[in-house]
Amino acid sequence: MFYKFIIKSIVFICILQISAAVTLFGQNPVTVTGTVTDPQSQPLAAVTVKVQGSDDAVLTNERGQYTIRVLPTAALEFNHVSFLPQTVEVGGKTLIDVQLQQKDNALDEVVVVGYGTVKKSDVTGSVISLKATDLSPGANVNVQQMLQGRASGVQITQSSGEPGSAMNIKVRGITSINAGNNPLYVIDGMPVNDGAPVGGSGAFAADANPRNPLNSLNPSDIASIEILKDASATAIYGSRGSNGVVMITTKSGSANRFSINLNSYYGFQEIARMEKDLTAQQYHDVINAIIADGGGLQSDTVSGDYGTGTDWQSQLYRPANVQSYDLSISGGARNTRYFISAGVFDQEGVMKNSGTTRYTARVNLENGVEKKYRIGINLSTSYIKDKFSSTGRGTNEDGAAIYAAINYDPTAPIFDANGNYNRSPFMNVDNPVALVNGETGIGNSYRTFGTLFGEYFIVPSLSAKLRLGGDINSTRRNDWIAPFTQSGRPYNGVASILTGTKSYYMGEGTLNYNYAKEDHRINAVAGATYEHFSTNSFSGNGRGFALPDLTYYAIGTGDPTQNVIGSGFDENVLISYLGRINYSFKDKYLLTASIRADGSGRFGANNKFGYFPSGAIAWKINEESFMSESDLFNELKLRLSYGVTGNQNIANYLFIPSFSVANNTVFGNNIYASIFPTRMENPDLQWEAAEQFDAGLDFSLLDRRLSGSIEYYRRRTTNLLVGLPLPASSGFTNQTRNIGSMRNTGVDIQLNASIIKTNNFSWDLNPNISFYKNVVLSIGSLGNIINSGLGINGGLAIIQPGSPIQSYYGYEIVGTWQTNDDFSVTKDNVQPGDVKYLDLNGDSTITDRDRKILGQPFPNYTFGISSLLRYKQLSLNFYIEGSQGASLLYNSMVDAYFPVSLRRNKLAEPYLNRWTPENPTNEYPSFVHPVAQGQRQVNSKTVMDASYIRLQSVRLSYDVPLPQDKRIRALSLFATGQNLAIITNYKGIDPSANAGAGDIMRLDFSSYPYTRTYTFGLNVEF
Amino acid sequence: MRTIKNFLLLLLLVASISGCKKMLDLTPRDEFSPGTVLTNTAGIKALLFSAYAGIQSQPNYRFSLNFAEVCTDVSFNTGGNENLIYTQFINFTWDPSVGQFAGICWTPYYRTIRDANLVIENIDNVGDASEDLKRQLVAESRFLRAYAYTQLYNYFGPVPLRTATTDDVALPKADDGTIKTFIETELNDIVGSLPDPSKEEAFGRATKGSALAVLTKFLLNIKSWQGAADAAKRLMDLNYYELYPVFKDMFKVEHEGNKEMIWVVPCTNAKVNMGNWFPSGAMPLGFKYSEQLPEYTWTSAIQNFATKYKLRDAFIKTFDTTDKRYVLVLRKYVNTANRVIDLTATPNSTCSMKYFDNNGLKNESGNDIPLLRYADILLARAEALNELNGGPTTEAFNLINLVRSRAGIGDLNLVNTPDQQAFRDAVLRERGWEFISEGKRREDMIRHGKFVSSAVQRGVVNAKPTHVLFPIPQSEIDANPNIVQNAGY
Q1: ∠A790-A795-A797 over CA atoms, to 5°?
Q2: Partner A contacted by B198 (CB < 8 A)
Q3: What pLDDT digit, counting tens, does each position of A934-984 carry?
Q4: I need a surface site. Which of A191, A596, B99, B376 has the fewest CB within 10 A?
């Protein structure tokens, strides 16, 4: 049926074309000539000179001259991308010279949307458009950091302080349970994969933070970012649109401006906050006091001459540098524009043996004549070298360096008498210094992506565009566990190599049509795309190295019988048809309708194609005659949209029955491979569908001094892709099916105020705030799903209808059992000083049934305030962001309440203020019988309020005044501070921390420290 | 105009390529299709080995062993993440939400059943196998399936009985009689098709001995005394199995496959996740060596877990100190800081050193885990004879005394064990000493009706009669509308 659609569209377009041409015949035309100049009176080439109401148009030549045949009563329109359009009545003249004015009207900016652009004032959907200058300054390793808190409705958190680790980004909250909540990224028109090629972690870093695949995009190459939020904007991306779309446009040259830009900065990072554990003396006193109270064995008594002990955390960390240098050259001549850039970014990690270095290069090249043709290429390549330190979520023997440091006996020395790493007989975690020096890895990532496009204007109003794109992202990660660590010792070294390549190519053909006559303007696009995705992976690890010198560089030098290898391959195809029409009547009433059909290899046989329609209307109220009286509003626009988008971000092949390699089997002393049935068939598998309604009001008033938007949305996701638990008695434990639904509602408010605006002094303030509310409506026949994991046993978060998704689920602590309490009310074995839990069901004993929802992992609202003060050449920019209402489970508090062993080190604050008969507090228990009532790890003390207000960045910059017409066009010096201060009740290192970067479920587990960063920089333009 | 045409042509090309729905039909290239696996010997054997793998799951056996012992008079646990789980078994506070009921006790057995059913259903499609081989592979599959049901029955009582892959996804529980009959009939049916002991392809595959041993113990546990006694006799009449002369050496890696071992989980330290992890939890904190067991020395290659599997003082006090099995109860050792640690100085802190591998690598020790050994069969027949005859017979005394004399302790006779109850108690005591760390205690205590009463005596206030069955895992209850939870949960 889509053939028919395309053919019909072509026919329709042709008919319109012919009818337009017919209207041209009539009076006798005259020849008009002239010169077009810019505001500096320099000739302007490539200006479109068009006869109003017709499709006749010419371009100015290099000297800015044009010649056109036109009716004496007609009008000429002069158009150039960088300047305001101008219309001149011919009025019988034959010489018309025109000076174009620079664009400064925000509403006439062009906004990039899916498969096209629209004028900002014509936007009907919810689109946030940010230019490079709107993005966060400072040391940004990736594009998401630049966006943090800049856009209402877009919540971005950094899950770890580790350089280059993945960012967590949500557009308007959570849409999905299992199919991912990351937005679709589209760079220069090409959807890019945001999955890391090496999914697993290496030999030592169990569940380490994944890398951010967008690190390969140099943030200083970005010209603008558009965030598409509502269904009318995202439905054109169909089955990938429901989490929002981030459109990134890279810089291009301008025709008459050759420039060289050098941007550089150098800076320092220091740890913002470290976990406060017991010092050696406090540890000695507290542990021995607990033993004296009957909470431990005499043999565990802390004794010996330990001096000041060892501060294990500070042994892992260091001050670290960050530096960045970017050089770009741009310009253009005749019909060609180019932008070439190269950059180096280097960030040391504050943890020893970690860091990231990135080299990038880009070429953007375009040749074209307006309304005739355009060809171009955008190509970016990068090499990233990562250094990995001992991180991850292993526990006990498998714990990594940070875990070990916060748990290790502070009275133990680093080295023993023989100069070897000391191992305390009380500790089964490894010596933290041995870990940080002995578990090391490097990653090499190469990514090249780009698109090649050609657009041909069959007639000025109709163009055909072909885009071919490709993306190859290849990573190799090498890990080494040295023989001097506890886990490397059994094998005399363990080496592992993981490689992965994600390949992508696409072809896309679109027809674009523009029509304008009298009160009607139509812009339409129709097209088809083909996309192919594949992933290749190989992993190998070796152990038993007789001579462990060569590590992963010669993995074959290990014991060959101990080698383990594996490989994988998967692919997917997405075939799509799309169409959109924008219609504007009297420039007051706007209408957009779009549809996309996506066929995906991921869907079952019964549901190969999904259809995603949307529609939007907008009313420019300020254009109405009744408003023209009032000069209060410069713009007032009401928008309403509705549409259906999808999410298909699940693994490939989930509907196909097949057999995979199972666990090995041992007979005698030999190991045998086995094969098992992977999954049951599900021919009905399909995309998640999100229906979204959006109402928005855009306004601009007081001579555009105050502008902004207020939006309300309601999104209902149905057919949620859930790993539905099957009765295990069937032999299968779960199957990915479409069940359940969820609703998100919210309000996004964004304001831009120009509070002071004089020649020498100005102050701009841009606050935004976003409210979210998530509720699970249904999860099929299941009552609830309780998720455990992340080292927490017995359930951490719950998905149940009526509550926010993945709410923390556990016990409420109401105080501490006091000496004079009535102990007859409980059947449990409790003593004074023990934790007093809320007996929710009143059965006088604490069981699983006393659990309740303790908090939600995401905020009720987030906000950001950016301020720009400018006095002459000096400007001061600061940016504050905040989040209210999220909770976070703090694992070190879990370990404080339920220590694995008494002799491990612990959080200082609870232990120094613990209950004793002399200090009958209700804040903390005595920690003498920590597991007497079982280990109720998720409770109201370990789940903490993670609301915060953060001074995210402050930047002071000075534009050095330069004489005109000199080689140097601009020179600015700046100093930036990032993450300078935070106000929060959260007791861990940072309320954003989320080890493992679980998509929704959050846990602060031995997190890599966050840093405060100070950078000093210099930008020069020649 | 030509350019236009080219563009349109390209567009059309894109459209026509895409038009082909076939392009969306992708099959995984790193997974096998059913057609490949189920039609040849290599595939069907790999599937059979997956059925074995469901039962073997070497690292997880530490849980199975502890689940059967920490809730009894024998053992105890402190420390580490595992303690979170064991605490619930120690205190009888387990409930259906304990994830290991599904992860250790339920799901792996149903995976074995699934794989066994697939082999049985597809064996006729295998072109390149002899009829003898087909018969043997089917017999092994039926054995593994029956064994899986004995384990499930042991933990949960009657459970869904799935004998074909085409059965409903959500089956209700089978009734008690049906499942008992199924297990007994199946095992009896296949004995003849399985290889004689030591004639199997590799040690650890099913033999006539394994089938008869499983049958003996199942019938004993359901108190089908005559059946148990007969099955034990049939096994003894294979004239292959014997008691290994030196008790403590029987479990050593170098004596694997000895003639006492009937049905084991083979373990090896040669590969990650293929070893016995129990020793890493059983050895005490900072263990280096002990004069008590000089042949065992810890090396820095061996992992010592945070969690500690310990024995209860009240239980080890019942040992005759000359009992040769008592030497495996570690009481004193030297730690890595060269300090002598006396475990008897702290309550409930001694530990079982039944399994230890000086060449252990990290968590992996090579010691096989005995599921059924000859002493178990001898004691089973003795117990059954005592029940059948209203008191101990000469043969019953002879059988138990075989086990006692190896342990170096005195014989039982009608003087010190005069009647049926005395003999029952003697067998139960004997089994306690004999099978520490072999995961038998729970079923023995239940069979003797002492599981709950003994817990109550220890001061476990939560222990109730319904605790003799574990709850059906919550995940099964949630996903299976046709199943009913066990009483009391």
Answers
A1: 85
A2: no
A3: 788 899 999 999 999 999 899 999 988 887 667 888 899 999 999 999 999
A4: B99
Token representation of residue A682: 């599900």
Question: Is the separation of the CB atoms in A706 and A752 below 8 Å?
Answer: yes
For the entire predicted model, the pTM comes to 0.85
Closest partner residue to A827 among B3, B106, B461, by Cβ?
A: B461
Q: Note the pLDDT tens digit of each residue in B396-431.
A: 999 999 999 999 999 999 999 999 999 999 999 999
The yes-or-no verdict on residue A330 having pLDDT over 90 is: yes
Write out the two tokens for A864. Answer: 């950001």
Specify the pLDDT at position A7: 44
Q: Is A234 helix (H, G, I), strand (E, B) or coil?
A: helix
A805 vs A784: CA distance, rounded Å: 10
Residue A549 identity (one-letter amino acid): D
Domain membership of residue B64 (yes or no) is yes
Residue type, A750: Q
How far apart are the C-alpha atoms of A872 and A877, rounded to whole Å? 14
Number of Cβ within 10 Å of residue B1's Cβ equals: 6
In chain A, the N- to C-terminal Cα span, in Å, equals 55
Residue in A572, A666, A900 closest to B56 by CB = A666
Chain-centre distance for alpha carbon A650? 18
Of B367, B387, B410, which closes a domain? Answer: B367
To the nearest 10°, report the CA torsion of B140, B146, B149, B154. Answer: -110
Assess contact for B157 and B177: CB atoms under 8 A. Answer: no
Taking the Cβ of residue B98 and every Cβ of chain A, the question of whether any pair is shorter than 8 Å is answered with yes
Q: Is residue B257 part of a domain?
A: no
Give the count of domains, chain B. 2
Structure tokens at A139: 């040391």
Q: Cα(A219)–Cα(A164) distance, rounded to whole angstroms?
A: 13
- Smallest Cβ–Cβ distance between B14 and the set A458, A509, A675 belongs to A509
Nearest to B300 among A489, A528, A848 (CB): A489
Q: Indicate if B170 and B318 belong to the same structural domain.
A: no
> Considering CB atoms only, which of A659, A663, A729 is closest to B34?
A659
Inter-chain residue contact A729 with B15, CB threshold 8 Å: no
Q: Kindly state the tokens that stand for B39.
A: 């039609």
Q: Which range scores top for mean pLDDT: A185-199, A213-227, A772-786, A809-823? A: A809-823
- Residue B106 within a domain: yes
- Cα A526 to chain centroid, rounded: 30
pLDDT score recorded for residue A156: 85
In this predicted structure, the answer to whether residue A626 has a pLDDT above a threshold of 90 is: no
Q: Is B427 on the interface with A (CB under 8 A)?
A: no
Residues of chain B contacting residue A726, judged by C-beta atoms under 8 Å apart: 169, 479
Look-up: residue for tokens 């038009």? B19
Q: What is the pLDDT at residue A144?
A: 83
Residues B183 and B277 in one domain: no
Task: Give the domain-ending residue among B310, B333, B367.
Answer: B367
Mean pLDDT of all residues in A251-258:
83
Q: Shortest CA distance to A152 belongs to which of A886, A982, A882?
A: A882
The CA-based dihedral angle spanning residues A275, A277, A279, A280, taken in that order and rounded to the nearest 10 degrees: -130
pLDDT, tens digit, for every residue of A726-747? 899 999 988 888 988 999 999 9
Q: Chain B interface, mutation test: which of A452, A666, A679, most B Cβ atoms within 10 Å?
A: A666
What residues contact B243, with CB distance under 8 A and at least 6 apart?
Answer: B260, B374, B375, B378, B402, B403, B406
| Same-domain check for residues B30 and B173 | yes
Chain A nearest-CA distance from B415, in A, is 45
- Please check whether residue B10 touches A, CB under 8 A: yes
Containing structural domain, residue B90: 2-193+471-479
Q: Taking CB atoms and an 8 Å cutoff, what residues of chain A touch B43? A: 659, 675
CB pairs under 8 A between A and B: 298
**Cβ separation A727–B87 shorter than 8 A:** no
Q: For chain B, give the longest Cα–Cα distance.
A: 115
